[in-house]
Design a protein that fits this description.
Layout lengths: L9 H14 L1 H6 L7 E5 L14 H6 L7 E3 L5 E3 L2 E7 L2 E6 L13 H12 L13 E7 L2 E6 L6 H4 L28 E7 L3 E6 L12 E6 L3 H10 L4 E2 L4 H4 L7 E14 L9 H10 L2 H7 L5 E3 L9 H6 L15 E7 L4 H16 L2 E7 L5 H5 L5 E7 L7 H9 L13 H12 L4 H17 L2 E13 L3 E2 L16 E2 L1
Parallel strand pairs: 1-10, 1-11, 14-15, 14-16
Antiparallel strand pairs: 2-3, 4-5, 5-7, 6-7, 8-9, 9-10, 11-17, 12-16, 12-17, 13-17, 18-19
Helix pairs in contact: 1-6, 13-14, 13-15, 14-15
Organism: Streptomyces marokkonensis
InterPro entries: Peptide/Ni-bd, SBP_5, SBP_5_dom
Pfam families: SBP_bac_5
Length: 495
Amino acid sequence: MRVPARLLPLPAALAASALLTGCFASTEATGADAGERISVAMMQPPRSGLSPLSDDAFKLSRWSTAETLVKLDADGDAEPALATGWKQSGRSWTFALREGVTFHDGTKLTAEAVVRSLNRAARAAPKPRILDGVELTVKAVDTTTVVVTTAEEDPLVPQRLSSPQLSILSAKAYRGKTVDPVGTGTGPFELTEVNGTSSAALDRYDSYWGGTAKAPGIDVTFVPDGTARAAALRSGEADIVEAVPVSQAALLDEELITEVPMPRTNTLYLNTDKGTFKDPALRAAAREAIDAESLVKGVYEGRADVAEGLLGPALPWAADLREPVRRAKAGDPDGRKITIGTFTDRAELPEVAAALQQQLKKAGFQVKLEVREYANIESDALSGAFDAFILSRATVLDSGDPAAYLYSDFASNGSFNISQLADSAVDKALDKAGATPTGDARRRAVVDAEAAVLATDAAVPMLHERVIQGDAADVVGAAHDPRERELVTLDTHVK
């Protein structure tokens, strides 16, 4: 039995009701396995047609439809998935494939299929960010063995291959220039239908190599509005709701929400290439103007942690290794004009932007805000169109290792370099971190690279977020994953 909905204030309730009526209509119309299929309300709609070579890959992972050779345990160490084992020899890694695996279209998992998927990712433009700075080739030894070779010795190859962007799909997915995940994965749920940016449907795949899923299927609705997502949980429209906004968490029964410190940092990226923040002294002035504690208490209602660095409490070893960073002295803003961009998909970010606008104005800047949906602002952010950009950024999303995030965001040729940073000391530190074997030495090198970035003031970490997920009272086995890779699993079901 569902928990009765708590009442919203009337205007919010009406707005949420209108949104939900439109958002969930297609799911209700199917009438499939009512009360048994899992209804999921997700925050961001697909941006690239659910291509696994984009960030949409993490949706495929969270729905347990696309799988990788390797997965990560809670500590970020690699463990078997579609590959049962591996060994390193210099620049090459040999992977033994799991036998008896079939794709959703009935074809078998073979070395040829793995080679096709990984080589397509390696040759993509742009590359999946887990391959930033990495050149790799993949060859089949026999039907159940592949060898992955990198241009330089890379200790993180297994962790890289755990990224959902390197999912293995059947040959059918690669017809034409795009990659189509419908009916081409290997997971316990088969993606059967995608309705643009509004919804998707998955059915249980009864021939899954890992056993039979407990739920007959998943109905996904994309609901960018945070109030509407929370209302979906209250009303029983959704069984699982991802990314419940902080402002809505207090309106939900505490027993229906789970709060987990996550490796996600709310950061102000400053454009180091042109405009006001090309001057290190003005970047320092912006850093000193920011009162992160007031953001945590005000915008996040205490459901976040003030940032001491780019890496937060989800990686406790970072705090233990971190040392004070020497930074530039602050200059006088003297009325300089700046434009700060952010997006609406995460409900707190516009509020953070408004608060920062006041803090920076008080420090002497003239501040204009530009707020859009993420899909409509990402390209401008990456091209350096703003003086500053507020981003909620996962720091170990891809490999379980923050070196990949640091390289992607702050290396001179990083694919997500919003700060447009090109600093030789940072590049050197990032290269060292990437080349250091896993373990204590690598963690030390990662923290040194973080310090090199912080010394430039190209990014001002403000706070570390906590993931807030809503599960209806009759949902069993939903994943609460700080890396946002899992959500509905083999064991998830509705009582």
